[in-house]
Amino acid sequence: VPNMGCKLLFGSCLSCIRRRFSIKPKQLLNFPKRYLGQPSPFTHPQCLKPGEVTPGLTQTEYALRRYKLMSLIQKESQVLGCSTDHAVIILSNPTLYMTSDIPFPFHQNNDFLYLCGFLEPDSILLLQSQSGQALPSHTAKLYVPRRDPGRELWDGPRSGTDGALSLTGVDEAFTTEEFKHVLPKLYDEGVTVWYDSTIPVHPALHTSSLQPLVEFRSRSKNRIRPLRHLVQQLRLVKSQAELELMKKAGHISSQAFIETMSCRKAPVEEAFLYAKFDFECRARGADILAYPPVVAGGNRANTLHYVKNNQIIKSGEMVLLDGGCEASCYVSDITRTWPVNGRFTAPQEALYQAVLDVQKSCLRLCFPGTSLENIYSHMLAMIARKLKDLKIVSRGCSESQLFKAARKYCPHHVGHYLGMDVHDTPGVSRSVPLQPGMVITVEPGIYIPEDDTEAPQQYRGLGIRIEDDVVITEQSPLILSADCPKEIYEMQKVFGTGS
């Protein structure tokens, strides 16, 4: 999915914490033999192994993330000259409603989820430094919705404090209402509070529990410190367990693309291709689609975030499908463009091959030390060259005119970071040097609206984008979407029109 944003560059080092430490998982004692508010090793042994909080991610991994966060806070507090006592507050998302009593499917705040793996709404994670011990030593406490048979009759089971404690492996668990008992300690000037108060993710919890603290601290010398940028630093570099989950999401989506491409019929409704892609993802184990997909036929592909998906694609037109799935809390983001009747016209093939050449050239730059900004500059230079080769712009154009044309015909960036979110860690600058474990998208495109009288007639109305998901490694880049055909001959085999 194209993204225009370009955000903050972190001042501190993005490399993982290098210190040696040991984190022992809690013993799996007294695990509730009942359904919780999310899958558990007891109720869903086909999905989770003992010791896992969410599929593929153990209590130890979540504890390690919290340890690394407190290590970053230790570093930042030394620079800022903060106190030695710290409290970190992260809220879950609330349940949102589409109308009276009808909720939208719940999706957790991913910063909260990243640190504890708890999937219920109306919850709070509190990390507190331990008295007399230096960071990153801390205690982790979860405040979760109280068990309520009346509500559980309608909404399904809740984990409760015992379930949350056993599943996540935090140190202590309380009901959300009990959070009020810890609040008086947070007014102490000697405690530095880390909390994202600017745009609260849970407005009701913020208003009822934290707004007075925020207002008090705004008049204090020891003001509340923002937290999101530190969590995003951690989320930027994926662990091996995270990469395995992202491989799964990439494989599911790639297979769904193949099945959707193989539905060679024209005319075809965009809604049909949308439904086909959605079904094929879920049938292979995806939880949901990662975002509303773009299924844009013909000239509609020149609307970058076209999501109405309600038109008919005629024979002879191409479809641009930008879609991905979420599986076990991690996402994929892939784009392919193909002719719905299975046969490229000469102009379609020429423009498609130009975009593919640009994309493959950009993929070769995905190595440690470069950056998305570097790859973007290369993409623009390559697109300018292709526009010239295809005579979409005059061969006599100056360098500045070529650059302007490249920006015109590809108005978005080359890619973005990928992980638990599609546009993952948006606060991280694209100028940050890439390092092993980062995952990015590479998605050049050329878009020529049908009313562009400056372009040759045969290319008007064509919009082509090719997008892959890429893991940065010490060696060559690992393409998570490698199973998804993009070479013309590969797609023709799927269509059944190849020689």
From TrEMBL:
The keyword Ubl conjugation does not apply. One of its GO terms (cellular component) is mitochondrion. CDD domains: Prolidase. Its main location: cytoplasm. InterPro entries: Aminopep_P_N, Creatin/AminoP/Spt16_N, Creatinase/aminopeptidase-like, Pept_M24, X-Pro_dipept-like. It holds the Pfam family AMP_N. Its cofactor is Mn(2+). Its EC number is 3.4.11.9. Keywords: Cytoplasm, Hydrolase, Manganese, Metal-binding, Mitochondrion, Transit peptide. It catalyses: Release of any N-terminal amino acid, including proline, that is linked to proline, even from a dipeptide or tripeptide. It is found in: Cytoplasm; Mitochondrion. Residues 57-203 form the Aminopeptidase P N-terminal domain. One of its GO terms (molecular function) is manganese ion binding. Belongs to the peptidase M24B family. This is Xaa-Pro aminopeptidase 3. The lineage of its organism: Eukaryota, Metazoa, Chordata, Craniata, Vertebrata.
